[in-house]
Description:
Number of strands: 10
Strand content: 15-25%
Largest sheet: 8 strands, mixed
Structural class: alpha/beta
Number of domains: 1
Radius of gyration: 16 Å
Oligomer: single chain
CATH topology: Rossmann fold
Amino acid sequence: xxxxxxxxxxxxxxxxxxxxxxxxxxxxxxxxxxxxxxxxxxxxxxxxxxxxxxxxxxxxxxxxxxxxxxxxxxxxxxxxxxxxxxxxxxxxxxxxxxxxxxxxxxxxxxxxxxxxxxxxxxxxxxxxxxxxxxxxxxxxxxxxxxxxxxxxxxxxxxxxxxxxxxxxxxxxxxxxxxxxxxxxxxxxxxxxxxxxxxxxxxxx
Length: 204
């Protein structure tokens, strides 16, 4: 049996669009000063454990959050993973809640948006690739709220709540009987989560 691989999945810090409650998706909106402070506070929480390196989404708010975490923890950002970008929200990107946004809603999302299933699959592919490349490592992954929530829900087998700005989640991968992938989600938004080890879903 291979050693367990541990991930701390961290949502980027706040942006001005987050503060304005705009849908960001793939739009490349930078961190604001509140977001930078949030990421530094998360670094202080992660300092209690040993971590090997950091990877992130290529969007600037995630890249800068990753750089802050790496600097605070004495680590290196070793790469930016395209599969970790946020969900594409189609025509809803940049919009605030209101009649115009509500008119774009369809079951499971918005017109021309990426499906939840596709987002979860992307997140699962990215984490599995990191397991294959760095088995047994302890990896900080900086990404986006919807991608983290949907990815963790698919891998853990249970619904996961909304991920706060700079919120961190911890999930561990190990191989079970017959090399089945087992995922154990222990922390969501910095607090203990109650579901134990479960087989990954087929879509992961």
